[in-house]
Write a structure and sequence with these properties.
The protein is mainly β. About 15% of the residues lie in helices and about 45% in strands. The strands form nine sheets. Strands 2, 3, 4, 5 and 6 form a five-stranded antiparallel β-sheet that branches. A four-stranded antiparallel β-sheet has the order 1-35-34-33, with no helix packed on it. It has a four-stranded antiparallel β-sheet with strand order 7-8-9-10, with no helix packed on it. A hairpin with a 2-residue loop joins strand 15 and strand 16. Helix 1 packs antiparallel against helix 2. The radius of gyration is 31 Å and the shape is globular.
Length: about 475
Amino acid sequence: MGNLNKTLALLLISLSLSMLLAFQLALAQTSSPVQTPTQSSAPTPTTLWQFTPHNYVGSGNYSVGGWSTPTIVDGVVYVDMYGSRSYEKVVPHHYLPKNETITVYEGWGGVYALNATTGKIVWFATTQGSRLSPAVGDGEVFAQIGDGEIGAFNISNGQSLWTFTTKVSTSEDSGLPAIVSNSIVFVGGNDGKVYALKAADGSTLWAFAADASPTSIDSTHYSAPTVVDGIVYVGSNKGAIYALNAASGYKLWSRDTNTSIPMVPIVVDGVVVYYSSYDPYLHALNAENGNEIWNFTTGTMLSVPAASNHVVYVNTGFWKKGDTIVRDKVYALNSANGAILWNSTLGGFGFGSPTVVNGVVYVGSLDHNLYALNAGTGQMIWKYTSGTAIFSTPAVVNNVVYFSSDDGALYALKSPTLASSPSPSPPTSIKLQNQLPKVALVVVLVVAVLVSLALYGRHRKPADPLQDP
């Protein structure tokens, strides 16, 4: 009986020591941090080309005001540029019988099609210029060409195909942001209407008017629309966001926000995310009914959020809540509830909208840098320093980053090939390492049982065959 008690005691001690050892192994494995590329371990990006407009239409002094976000299709960069031109002109004097020389200032710009590899001009269409990105589809390029006017160009040679002009132009905003989907061009008008145009000829399929009197000088104008699953989402300067049937223009729902919505809303995981001008929040609505799900304090954010893999990325400017001051941060938020996953501080005030491609967040800043951040952790992978501030939203195709700087140039950078591609989810090797504690626990428990059984067998007296049971 005594030997049996000793054996059981040894068995319990062995099992306890085994479980303690397994716990220590598990703790050691799971506490190892996931390694991500850093700026010091990754090469810096290289400049493929830099384009500055030089195809002037006449004499005078030219300056570039800015570029739209590039649209890259089949190896060609389509981008809109706006600027100004000043020149001297001789005109009759108002009061004296002689001529006088005056300085004339006018807008200058147009749509460029550039070779994505070399930066050489494929074609150029002269317009008044715009900061709105060209929409590309159905063999056409759609861009703003004048005050309250949108045009369609042949994608191969830039030939003008058709134009569409709204009935009224407001003093607040002359932009006509457009997007093309299923051979329909959706236009956020500046005359109180949202239009659906046939891409082939520019004819109107339907027009949606938000208010009863869309002809006043203070009428509603709209952000760029977003089209997802046959629904058009668009915001207005009158403080409302709308969901419209893309085929008919029928209003599915609307939500009053009491603040202007100047920038395009995005849709991710059934959630409509948008930024308002006059309140310090990023809002998220249910895409089916417009009910608010969550909001997040952003302050003076002047950019459009981006989304990827159930995460919303926001580049904020400056905001203060109580004694807390927050500035120059990029946030990653859970798309379902707005919870903060991580935040990363930039070196300067953030204006540019982020772009997320293949697990990397690209974003510009006023500190003259373009940043590449790990989308899963927010850690900086690399940064590229230009001559001036970077306001634009980058476009990324085939590991090449296209963006503009405040120096008036358009850049193409080759992003470095990373030894370990950043990803919102842990790499496979890390996942396998995290399985090791479970394996170690099973192995140690098996060994403990075998040792305990051996000890039990050693201390148990063999039965005497001559003794009666």
